[in-house]
Amino acid sequence: MEQMKKTETILYGGAFNPPTLAHTQILQACVEYARPRGADVWVMPSGNRLDKVIPLTRERRLAYVAAMLEDVYSEGVRTDIITTELDRPVAVETYDTAIELEAAFPDRQMTWVFGADSTETMASWKQGDWLLENLNKLVIEREGSRINPLAKRAITLSVTTPRISSTEVRRRLTVGESVKELVSEGVGELLSH
Asked: What is the spatial distance between Cα 144 and Cα 84, in angstroms, rounded to a whole number?
């Protein structure tokens, strides 16, 4: 029996609280990577983790991600938002999400987007050795970090991004400073309301 060809799906997860220009540029690079491969790109806002709780409503988080997607040129690439982690009632673990997605979408081959810094700490995550060995990874280089040599199935995606963080965006918003140069246009409009 001939095996069915799976649709490659680039899975870009993160807190996106709010998405910065760096997030948007990484998403654009994922779309550019996906286009010639015929792959889809799914953006997955993360759920709460044991080490990080995101104090925003589900609706606000989804609005942030939708605004970021609007600011990316994605013609020819199917993009979507997936809420698997956002809707999980317990603390999120990447391993649990990977197993859940594999069962829910057997016709898709997931390629996970990670920063090089995440690959450095991945061994300490739940089933970290399994993640390093088994997940297809699209790894974004980070200054001061290197890709873990134990990260199998890892492809480097070169993206030059500004050194900005969601924490800095939130700080500026709190004190009434401009965030215009830190976020994409659609995200900026959303933040101004």
From this structure: 31
